[in-house]
Amino acid sequence: MKTTTAVVLFLLIAQSVFSQNILKGEIIESNNNQALAFVNVYFPQLEKGTVTDDNGKFQMSNIPNGTHKLVVSSVGFETYSINITFPVSEVLKIILQPSAIEMEEVIISTPFHKLQSENVMKVERQSVKELKSRGAINLADGITNIAGVSSLSTGVSIGKPVIRGLSSNRVLVYTQGVRLENQQYGDEHGLGINDAGIESVEVIKGPASLLYGSDALGGVLYLNPERFATENASEATISGTYFSNTQGYNSSAAFKSSGDHFKFLFRGSVAEHSDYETTDYRVTNTRFREQDFKAGLGYQKHQFKTELRYNINRSKLGIPEAIGIQDTNTTPLELFQEITNHIFSSKSTIFFNNSSLDVTLGYIYNDRKEFEDHHHGEEDHDEDHDDDDHDEEDHDDEVHSEDEAPALHMKLKTFNYNVRYNLPEIGRFETIVGVQGMNQANTNYGEELLIPDAITNDIGILATSHIHFDKIDIQLGARYDYRHININSQIDRDFNSFNGALGIKTNLFHKVTARFNLASGFRAPNLSELASDGTHEGTNRYEIGNIDLKNEQNFQVDLALEFKNEHVEVFANLFYNQINDYIFLSPNGEFIDDDPVFVYLQDNARLYGGEFGFHFHPHPLDWLHVESSFETVIGQLDDDTHLPLIPANSLHNTLRVEFNKDWIQNSYSFIKYSYTFDQNNVSDFESNTAGYGLLSAGLGGTFQLFKNDLEVTIAANNIANTTYVSHLSRLKSDNIFNIGRNISLGLNYTL
C-alpha cells in the first residue's frame, strides 16, 4: 500500500513538474471589436510563436509552467506585452490599440528581454530587412544607417562597426548568442558574418562590461539570428539582389519547419562582386566572393528547451593597394585574404516553476590566410593563416597560384560560455546572477608573424536587478572579471576589473520618457598591443607592442530623452565617456626595413556628443513619415589633441510613404539626403576630410505570385554620383574615392 501511494505521489509530482500547458486566445481591435488576423503572438524567452487565424484566434501548446512574457504585435497597432503565469485555464482576450507609431520588438541584448518602451537602457534596433531595403551591399554597410553607428571600411567588402567613435576591440560583436572572435584588432578585418539569416541588429552604445565583460567598453553590436518557423508550419524562401555598380549579386535560399517539439532551418547564400566604380575609375582589387551556410535545430518538451546553430562563412577578399587593372572580374588579385569562420552555438533553458537557468555555449574557429606577391612552396602544416595586414606597395595584378602558400596564416580558436540563473521574482525585483568565461588560443602557421602564439582565459561573475515601481524603473548591477594571458609559453599577464551600472527610466512629463544611465567598463590590452613585433603590411608601419600596458577603464554618463504622441516623436541622446589609460599608436622616430616604427602608449581620453532627431507622422495621414537626425562625437586626449578615426558630424533627412492596396501590400517609397560635414578635428597623423552630401531613394512592396508572396525592392544610392572620401575609409590616405552611384534590385519569393 505504501509503495502504491508513493508511486501515485511521484506521478502527481511528475505531472505537475512536466505538465504541458496550452494557451488559447483571441485578438480584437479596440475601435470596432473586429477580429484581427495575421497578428504575431510570441513568447521571447521560449522563442515560440504563432499568428492569429482569420477569426483572430490562436493556440499554442507545449508551454512549461512558470511566468512567461507574451508579446503581441501587428503593423498599425501598439505592441502589447503581458506576463502570463502557467498553468492557466481561461481563454486570453487581447484588445489592440491602433497606433501610427511603428510597432516595438523585444530587446534581446539586454538581460530582461523587455520592449524598448519598458527598457531602462536605450538600445537601437533595426531589422536587417529594412537595412537591405536601403541598398546595403553587406551587413557592415547596412549598420551605418543606425544612429550613432559608422563603419571603418576597406572598399565595400570589409567594414568594422564604429560606435560613437570607438571600434575594433572596444566594440564587442555577438551572433547566435555568443561573442564573435575573429582577430578584431586589425583595421582590415571585417565582421565575417553574412546578413542572410540575420533577423535584426541591436546596438548598445556605451560600456556594456556589466553584461559582456572585456571588449564591450565601447558598446555591443548584437546580431539576432532569424527565428524558426511558427509552430506546425513550414516555409521556403529564395532571394537575390543585383547591384549595378559592382555588377555583383547576393543570393540566398532557405527552408525551415517547426513541429510540436522539433524545429529546424537551413540557409545557404553566395555573393560575388567586382571592383567598385567611382566617377573616374574602378578601384582595383576591391572585388570579393563570399559563401555562407547557416543551420539550426531546436527542441522543446516539458520544462526544457534547447537550440543548436552552426554558421560557416568563407570569403575571399581583395585588398586594394593602388589604381591598376580596370575590369569586372570577381576573382581577387594578390594581395588578398582568404578567411573561413566557423561558429557553433548551443543555447539551452531549464524552466522551474518561477525561475529558469540559461546555458549558452559557443565555439568559434577563425582561419585567416593572406596571400602576398611571390610566396611559393611554403609548408602549409595542414593549417591555415591569415592577416590583418597588407601591402600598400604597387602590385602587378598577379593572379594567385593554387600551390602558393599564405604569407600570413593564423588560427584563432575560442570556446566561451555564459550561464545565467533568473531568480524568482520577489515583489518588484527581477534578478539575474551569472558567470561568463572564455578560453582562446591563437596560433601562427605562416612565414610572417605579427602577433605571437598565445592562450587567453577569461572569467566573469555578475549580478543585475530590474526594479519596477509605478512611475519609475531602476536597473543596477555589478560584475568582477579576471583575464590571464600566456604569450609563447613564456610571458604571463593578469588583468582584473570590478565594474557596475545604474540606470533609471521615468516619465518626466506626459509622453516624455527619460533614461539616465551611469556605467563603468574596461578593456584588457589585446595581443597586438601587448606583443606585436613586425611590419603591419596594411598600414606600412612596423609595430612594437608594450607588455607593460594596463587595463583601459572608462566611465560613461548617458541621458536619453524621448517624446511621443500620435503625430510626432522627438529624441535627444547625450553621452560623456571618460577613458583612463586609453591605448594608442605613436611613431618613435625610428625606421625598420624602411617602415616607420610605431609603439603603443597610454593616456587618458574623453569622448562626448550624441544623437538628436524627430519623426513626424501626422494623424490621420499615417502613411506619411518625415524623419531627420543629427549625430556628433568628439574624441580627445588629455592634452586636447584629437583621437584618430572619429566619424564626422552628419545630418540625415528622409521622406517616406507607406501604403497598402489590393494588388500590393507592405509597400513603401522613400527619398533620403545625408550630409556629412567637414572633419577638421583630426589626430596628428590624419588629414582633414571634406564634407559631402549623398542622395538616395527606393521603393518596394509585396505582390501575390502563384498565391505566394513576392517581395520586390529597388534602391538607388549616391544618385548624383558624387565623388567623395569618407574619413573612416582606409583608402583615404591614397585619396581613393568611395563608391559611386549604385542601383540595386532585390527579389524575395516565399514558397
Helix content: under 10%
- What is the CATH superfamily classification of the largest domain? TonB-dependent receptor, beta-barrel domain
Gross geometry: globular
Number of strand segments: 38
Provide mean pLDDT, rounded.
88
Low-confidence stretches are: 1-18, 375-396
CATH level 1 class label of the largest domain: Mainly Beta
Gap from first CA to last CA = 59 Å
- Counted up, domains total 2
Question: Architecture of the largest domain, CATH level 2?
Answer: Beta Barrel
The main pleated sheet reads as: 22 strands, antiparallel, barrel
CATH fold-level assignment of the largest domain = Maltoporin, Chain A
Counting DSSP H or I runs of 4 or more residues, the number of helices is 5
> What is the beta-strand fraction?
over 45%
Structural class: mainly beta
Radius of gyration: 26 Å
Could you walk me through the main structural features you see in this protein, from its secondary elements to its overall organization?
The longest helix is centred in the first third of the chain and has 16 residues, at 2-17. A hairpin with a 2-residue loop joins strand 11 (171-175) and strand 12 (178-179). This protein is mainly beta. The protein has two domains: 19-99, Sandwich (Immunoglobulin-like); 168-750, Maltoporin, Chain A, CATH 2.40.170. The radius of gyration is 26 Å and the shape is globular. The chain contains five helices and 38 strands. The chain starts with a helix and ends with a strand. Helix content is 5%, strand content 54%. The strands form five sheets. The chain has a 22-stranded antiparallel barrel. It has a five-stranded mixed sheet with strand order 8-13-14-11-12. The protein has a four-stranded antiparallel sheet with strand order 3-2-5-6, with no helix packed on it. Mean pLDDT is 88; it is low at 1-18 and 375-396.
